[in-house]
Amino acid sequence: MFKPCILFAIVLLASATSAQQKDADGWTVVAQRSTGNLNFYRNWADYKAGFSDQAEEFFIGLENLHQMTSSEPHELSIVLEDFDGQTRTANYAEFLINGEDDGYRLAVLTNYTGDAGNSLYWHRRMRFTTYDRKNDGSMAMYNCADIAMGGWWYDNCSYSNLFGLYMNGELETRNARKGMYWEMFRGIQYSLKSMKMMVRPAAANAKASKTICAAADRLRLPIACGNGTDGNSTTERWIGVLNRTDGNLNFYRDWQEYKLGFGDLSNEFFIGLESLHNMTANQTHELLINLQDFNGSSRYAHYDNFKVGNENSSYTLESLGNYTGNAGDSLVYHLGMKFTTYDRDNDRSEHNCAVERMGAWWYNWCNNSNLFGMYLKSDYNATIGVRGITWWDWRGPYYSYKKVQILSQPYPSSCPWAGIYTLQVPGVSAFPALCDVSLAGDGWLVIARRFDGHENFYRNWTQYEAGFGELTGEFFIGLDRLHAITASQPHELYVYLEDFEGGSRYAHYDDFLIGNATELYNMQALGAYSGDAGDSLRYQEHMNFTTYDKDHSTGKRKCGILRLGAWWYNDCAHSNLFGLYLGGDYAMDFDYKGMFWIDWRGTEYSYKSIQMMVRPKRHCSKL
């Protein structure tokens, strides 16, 4: 167990180290490595409390890091050195770690500058993971802390790993991603000589510089963007719906003003109900509410399916979706309610809640939340009534917040990076999707995956049309979605095969298109082939999809039944990746019935794992 006296020593060491380097600038060293004498492959309790060799290497602890960064806005600076004497830095203007109840999430990381490359960007919003507590964004099969031999804010898995193994420079391929690496500096097969992580309270100009996407061009409002850059021209396009920071703007307004919006986009504003409806009417949006109290603590509420109706519905709060966050769900109480202002009463109370609460909102009765209320200073006397900027599930009804920000953004139509994302393409509802960067670069959407045979792929037409399985295990995305994805814009296809002897091959097709239900999900195009697995899908091009209960193969045989699978059978197939999972070589009795690809291991071999992926042909790589 980590002793309080050692924690005190760490704080002194951090302060002393920062004083030697930047004493005038107020930096506190929170992690330092330079010798490899200290083991960083530790459990959750150690990372929570912190640890040290009482000399040159230490980590201040997640709880201390949370307490520091949540007390007031902080910036982060990371200094890296390789064994050739080169140094690089990565700096972030805003850095926040949430508390243990949220897994010490890397909640805020914005405005990168430096020359190391932004290899921490891909870990933003991730919870901390250790070998005994898995919070990463990987599939359920493994823990990234075990793979990377450290503790970190792993996604799936890591593009930086500063708490990984200390391994002295160049690494063998088998040790890739296990060292103390920063991918954009020396890559995943290089373990750095030293690293130092430092934080300090954010400078006043840095605090003031943060801006948000205030509106979209199509809404004919100016855009003010600046947060979320990754150093490679990648910006999260959150649209600012509401911003309140100092109480200079009156929010006790009539229906017409709330319809059109009001305020200054560089300060306090509301985007307007009509704009909010136009944004959310045709695309699924997520909603993010950021709250800050007068003590500097911050909380958030996130909803994954936000929609506001039109004026004929009185801008009803039609949908919120699922809640996540640490502020509490104080908005669901108002789901399905019309908007109310002092001159248009649409709530359920016998009184006008907008008058009673001195602010407009989607009132049910008059309780739970009111982010358009009066700007009051912190706690206020109950005799005033519940009239502040309130969110009851955090600080209760008699606390008015210092800062409030409401943001919204549409879901992406293609994979932004590795992990599970909600995607949205025309023709189908928004859906969760698995995105992969490990096999063929970034931007790939996994449409089918098999690796242990636990999921039955001998299924009927309805199941193949809708999709089946779990994204964390084996699955097929569904023919209806596959058509919508490939019809939305030109796509390429990547097929990955792995045998039981450790070999792997791939087949790439540069123009992949699946028809619609009326066209029986015909494989309309494949494009040019490249790869080392052989072109075993070409025989299936222009074929309709077949299942055991709907045979669309070209010959007299019922190929779905004969091959014990489903596929774009011709008469019958040179590949059958939705066939039986048979574990390698199999007897002639099962010839052509396994998960085979004829041009590599023939028709009597069923692969250990397969993965089929698509991505837009116009994809711009982040790598």
From TrEMBL:
Residues 1-203, 204-404, 406-618 form the Fibrinogen C-terminal domain. It holds the Pfam family Fibrinogen_C. PROSITE patterns: FIBRINOGEN_C_2. CDD domains: FReD (cd00087). Keywords: Signal. The keyword Signal applies. One of its GO terms (cellular component) is extracellular space. It comes from the Eukaryota. SMART domains: FBG (SM00186). Residues 1-19 form the signal peptide. This is CG9500. It comes from Drosophila busckii (Fruit fly).
